Amino acid sequence: MERLRLGVLGCSNHYALRIAAPLKSSLLVEPYAVASRDEARARKYAKTTGFSKAYGSYESLLADTDVDFVYIPLPNHLHLEYIKKAADAGKPVICEKPICLNANEAAEAAAYCQSKNVSLMEAFMYRFHPQWIRAKEIVSIGELGELLTVHGHFSYMNKDANNIRNKADIGGGALYDIGCYTVSSARYLFGREPLRVVCTLTRDSAFKTDVLVSGILDFGEGKTSTFSVSTQMCPCQRVTAIGTGGNLSIEVPFNMYPDVPGNVTISVGIGQRVIKTEIADQYLQEFDAFAESLIQKAETPTPVSDAIANMAVLDALFKSAGSGAWEAVQKY
């Protein structure tokens, strides 16, 4: 079967580090073209990451009729613009998280792609890893009893003033970059949307980005999720889910290694066990699943409605950080 040809907008370090290698083994996706606003940079990047074509503008790549779908890892403030331009060119899109800067933009992007009859999916790769699929199964079958709370933590150290994550005017900051994961994973395990949230937020005095964010998500009926995320803290990540009959913990929930098994620790009344899930590259799983949906003309593996709902929670968290009060999560 002929593979779908992928075009990437931007010479992304994230793509080069985490996605380029696994896609070499894909039976469904061919890394085909990359674009930069600097053509010389695009050509150099293409050689090192395995693309056969390089373009000096994003628009030139989108005009290439041989590109079957595109991946957008651009800075957050450019997502809506280039989702629309890709849709205008008839290109389905995987867009990096957060899909846009707020839920209104996300809904606008979704509606625009629907009007052009192109698929759009937010790139939450963690959901495709076997450890998360197994964790969701364990919660769903009731092994933990009634799920009551989910605790998430995600942090790293980054004080580089030139890094896009430290630029407030283009959508940098901890809540956009990694808080979206802790919110998404709690929503995924509960299988429902929070009703209201409360949040505290600390900003860097120079960058003006949020560098330490903590929040509570109220899912109703006594069910809650708490999280803390930081861009200026030691690297650490963990998700724990606790119910009336037991708890589970995912050792490396988000930046999971591609070459070792996942570890999901389960504690129930009869004892504790560690489930070692199969070795898998979550980025390969993600791109292959999206390509398969295009080939089969099926719904995207993660619906765009999920991306809109996640942004609605982030909107409420930002609002709460400003008001100092509980804020309702808007429905879309």
Kindly describe this structure.
The protein has 332 residues and is α/β, with parallel strands linked by helices. It has helices spanning 13-23, 39-49, 58-63, 79-88, 103-115, 130-140, 174-190, 282-295, 304-323; strands spanning 4-9, 29-35, 53-55, 69-72, 93-95, 120-122, 147-157, 196-203, 210-220, 223-230, 232-243, 246-250, 262-268, 271-277, 327-328. A nine-stranded mixed β-sheet has the order 14-13-12-11-7-10-9-8-15. A six-stranded parallel β-sheet has the order 3-2-1-4-5-6, with helices on both faces. α2 links the parallel β2 and β3 (53-55). 46% of the residues are buried.
Order of helices and strands: EHEHEHEHEHEHEHEEEEEEEHHE
Q: In percent, how much strand structure appears in the residues?
A: 25-35%
| Terminus-to-terminus distance | 39 Å
Q: How helix-rich are the residues, as a percent range?
A: 25-40%
Low confidence ranges = none
Total number of beta strands = 15
Mean pLDDT: 97
Specify the structural class: alpha/beta
Strand order of the largest sheet: 14-13-12-11-7-10-9-8-15
Morphology: globular
List strands and helices in order, with pairings.
Elements: E1 4-9, H1 13-23, E2 29-35, H2 39-49, E3 53-55, H3 58-63, E4 69-72, H4 79-88, E5 93-95, H5 103-115, E6 120-122, H6 130-140, E7 147-157, H7 174-190, E8 196-203, E9 210-220, E10 223-230, E11 232-243, E12 246-250, E13 262-268, E14 271-277, H8 282-295, H9 304-323, E15 327-328
Parallel strand pairs: 1-2, 1-4, 2-3, 4-5, 5-6, 7-10
Antiparallel strand pairs: 7-11, 8-9, 8-15, 9-10, 11-12, 12-13, 13-14
